[in-house]
Amino acid sequence: MDEKMIKHPKVSLLKWMNPAGMLEHELEKVPWYIAIIISGIAFGLLFWQTGLDQRVVKEIGIPEIATLAIKGILMGTLGVIVLSFFVWVFIRITNKSISLEQAIKQMALSYTAPMVGLLFGLILNIAFGSRTAIAFGISGVLWSLNPIFRTIKKASKDRIFLSLFLTTAIGLIVMLSWDFLV
């Protein structure tokens, strides 16, 4: 990619809105810890919005909302690392060239677009009091499954069944974890 295009704000925004394209072209430039920060922020925002939504229907206070946000950050960092490890193990069976660092970065950066959506949802939640965890949060998690699927498919040398199985398992684990932790 041309250096002038990378520095242009519109192109940069488009890259963040298209995580699959960013993963494909920019993955090697992003350190794994930055990728984990992105997924941590995304899950932190999801759990924060869930807490704000619960505040409307339940009696929970600021400490409980903060605790939920911290759980989200932990799920988005440690949880994504653990999921990445298991994906890496399955992919290593079919492709010896992927590293654990690549698996972590690819999984974590799949939550880039949902992070942006969750940020907009949080703004709507705070500004208008609308309940946004389902609309922005869960749809964001589902949105992340496409780049996860494409990443697994590419890393596993186009093994569709393995890609579908792992992506479905990841989606199920993330949804059940969110339900359990909230």
Radius of gyration: 17 Å
Structure class? mainly alpha
Estimate the strand proportion.
Answer: under 5%
Shape: elongated
The residue-averaged pLDDT reads 84
Q: Biggest sheet, in brief?
A: none
- Please work out how many helical segments DSSP would assign: 9
Number of strands: 0
> Unreliable stretches, pLDDT < 50, 5 or more residues?
none
SSE series: HHHHHHHHH
First-last Cα distance: 42 Å
Topology:
Blueprint: H1 3-7, H2 9-17, H3 19-26, H4 32-57, H5 62-94, H6 100-109, H7 112-128, H8 133-155, H9 160-181
Write a brief caption for the model.
This protein is an all-alpha fold. 84% of the residues lie in helices and 0% in strands.
Descriptive report:
With 182 residues, this protein is an all-alpha fold. It has one domain. Helix content is 84%, strand content 0%. The protein contains 9 helices and no strands. The protein has helices spanning 3-7, 9-17, 19-26, 32-57, 62-94, 100-109, 112-128, 133-155, 160-181. The mean pLDDT is 84.
